[in-house]
Amino acid sequence: MKTPFEHFKTDISVVQISQDVYEGNLSNRWSIGSTPNGGYTMAIAAKAISESLDHKDPLVITANYLNRLDFGTVKINVEVMPSTKSLSSARATMSQNNEIKVIFTATFTDFLKSNGLNKSFRKEPEFVAYEDCIFHPFKKGFNPDLEKSIEKRYCPDSVWWDEKKVANKNKATLNLYMSWPNKETADLYSLILFLDSTTPPIFNNMGSVGWVPTISLTSHLRAIPSPGPLKVSAKTEFLTSGFMEEDREIWDSDGNLVGQSKQLAKLRLKK
3-class DSSP state for residue 158? Predict the structure, then answer.
């Protein structure tokens, strides 16, 4: 029986159908409700882009979501851009039924050959112990496929589903540990998924008040993660006319920053 990580690697695989054109299949394993997760669709696009480039490690990828994707076949058209010794870049589109649904730009590198300066001006965030963090208790009859495929342990200050603890908070932040359930080490494509797989941090201020579709998402991959649970912090600071940013960081078990993302989303309140 496949583990969730093994399913993920299968579910982001693509098949080349012509020069720089690929097909993938959007699985319902990586969704909440009836819509594929944006980080998952980005991971499929990154996999297709990597097939057309000399460098294979995603460094930064931006997605602009034009319309809703459905489960099933997608076509990814890749346009290779000029490259350098250490970087390769491309533009890509993801289509269904001959309609472009997402536009991507991406730059790839080779982390094992990267030898630049390392310097940090901030330490990793301080979390309570992994063993003292809390699993999200799923409601009976609710089937969050994405949530069941990733192990998440929320810090005590981030139990967004508890209305009593959410009330009267003056910020919208989340802190949690994230990993694959069978303890496999997350790879760079896992980071792309994880950077869009936390609950919206606004829920830890207002409660689960609605649907939060993504408009634009940029993910930076900073390093290949070390084995062990990943620390994930997320925050929203401004909600303006229903639009809000979501900023996320991922730190590995050795205290290295391995991923960052900035997302623009729309809060659609429940009717």
Answer: helix
> Hey, which residues does 154 pair with through a beta bridge?
134, 176
Which pair of structure tokens corresponds to residue 75? 């076509």
What domains does the chain contain, in order, with CATH numbers? 4-111+128-269 (2.40.160.210)
Is residue 58 within 8 Å of 192, Cβ to Cβ?
yes
Measured between alpha carbons, how far is residue 221 from residues 74, 75, 77, 90, 268 in Å? 24, 24, 22, 16, 29
- CB 248, CB 260: distance < 8 Å: yes
- pLDDT tens digits, one per residue of 196-228: 999 999 999 988 888 899 999 999 999 999 999
Residues 6+ apart with CB under 8 A from 223: 111, 252, 256, 257, 258
Phi, psi at residue 183, to the nearest 5°? 70, 15
The answer to whether residues 107 and 60 touch, using CB atoms and an 8 Å cutoff, is: yes
Q: Which two tokens stand for residue 76?
A: 């990814």
| Structure-block tokens of residue 186 | 């997350």
Please tell me the pTM assigned to this model.
Answer: 0.95
Query: Under 8 Å CB-to-CB from 151, ≥6 apart: which residues?
Result: 177, 178, 179, 180, 181, 229
Q: What is the pLDDT of residues 164-178, one digit of tens each?
A: 777 557 889 999 999
Residue 114 has a CB neighbour count (10 Å cut-off) of 12
Residues in the chain: 271
If one counts every other C-beta atom within 10 angstroms of the C-beta of residue 248, the result is 22
